[in-house]
Amino acid sequence: MKFIHIADVHWGMAPDGDKPWCRQRTQAIRHTFERAIEETRNQKADLLLIAGDLFHRQPLVRDLKEVNYLFTTIPDTKVVIIAGNHDRIQKSSAVLSFQWAPNVTYLMDEEFTSVYFEEINTEVWGFSYHTAEIREPKLNQVQAPGKDRIHILLGHGGDAGHVPIDRAALAVAGFSYVALGHIHKPEVLVENRIAYSGSPEPLDKTETGKHGIIIGEISNLTGNVTSLKFLPMAEAQYIPLNVNVTPATTNTELTLRITQEILKRGSQHIYRFRIRGMRDPDIEFDLESLVNRYRIAEIVDESEPRYDFSRLFAEHPQRHDRIFHPGAAEGRDERRGEEGAALRHPRAASDYRRKELTP
Ligand SMILES: [Mn+2]
């Protein structure tokens, strides 16, 4: 029996809302979901498990229609869905009266319910969120009833406010496989038994690494997972990179080096750069041209100017205590505090202009 496990699609979300590529991210979420459906068809999967937060917020009828259309393109695959905290079932939810395609089962109840598919001798269990939080560790309290069929558990949660999970308890609950959602990073909690598929597309700059879907197989004979593979699908990754500079590094050199790093990995990805090391105090790093050309979410410049102190003292002998002791008691405290800060603290990407050391 072959299954595909996805979760946290967050259809309708607009990641990086303040960035020029935001709309493309919204489209990527939809497009990657379409490709996940296509993959389900190509794999001839018996089951498509969707472990919550398929939608970023309460879906409208038109959202349901779009997604349902995609499910009609895989009529031979049974689709089982639960709601997560984001798309939780509410009194006014359009999903309550929505007519899904015949191959779709939405386990909408707040308590555990199941659906049994005779052809594959498989029963899928799960419950949907009806509230934003569920503090009760509901997933730790269930046991698969018997071994006469394959039992699969669909769950959403794993933090204190969203169904805390005890992986050891879950591992011995008798399920062939536990398909989890809510944590956006893919992770296998117990080998061949419990896993988060993660979100098919990364949704936030902290969601680094590969994102995709899980493809698994369960032996009808033993009821054990015989194969569990992660298939990367995301159009883009969030990639954090450190760039080291020296007093010999010029702005042009730095720009070219960052460009090379981006082109090496792919310009579709979204980058965060951290600039570290000692820089020439005469050099200002101005990377605006890069920010305009590539998907750069953030540049944090932590480089510090390497001053030639002996030369500085010779030119401004009366000033040296202000460099070493910016808080020293001598009028204009506030001003000097600011200068001290400029020497020590990382600057935001928008604040490239170095403050003058000697006014
Ligand atoms: Mn969630």
Main features:
25% strand; elongated; binds manganese (II) ion; Purple Acid Phosphatase, chain A, domain 2; 2 domains; 23% helix; 359 residues; alpha/beta; disordered C terminus; six-stranded mixed beta sheet
CATH topology of the largest domain: Purple Acid Phosphatase, chain A, domain 2
Strand order of the largest sheet: 4-3-2-1-11-12
Number of strands: 16
Q: What molecules are bound to this protein?
A: manganese (II) ion
CATH superfamily of the largest domain: Metallo-dependent phosphatases
- The coarse silhouette is elongated
Output the structural class.
alpha/beta
Helix content: 10-25%
Distance between the termini: 74 Å
Q: Topology as H/E string?
A: EHEHEEEEEHEEEEEEHEHEEHHH
CATH architecture of the largest domain: 4-Layer Sandwich
Quote the beta fraction: 15-25%
Q: Could you report the average pLDDT, rounded to the nearest whole number?
A: 89
What is the count of helical runs? Answer: 8
Describe this structure in words.
By secondary structure, the chain is of the alpha/beta class. The chain has 2 domains: 2-232, 4-Layer Sandwich (Purple Acid Phosphatase, chain A, domain 2), CATH 3.60.21; 238-344, no CATH class. It contains 8 helices and 16 strands. The longest helix is centred in the N-terminal third of the chain and has 21 residues, at 22-42. The radius of gyration is 27 Å and the shape is elongated. 33% of the residues are buried. Mean pLDDT is 89; it is low at 323-359. Bound molecules: manganese (II) ion. Manganese (II) ion (MN) is lined by residues 52-53, 84-86, 156, 182.
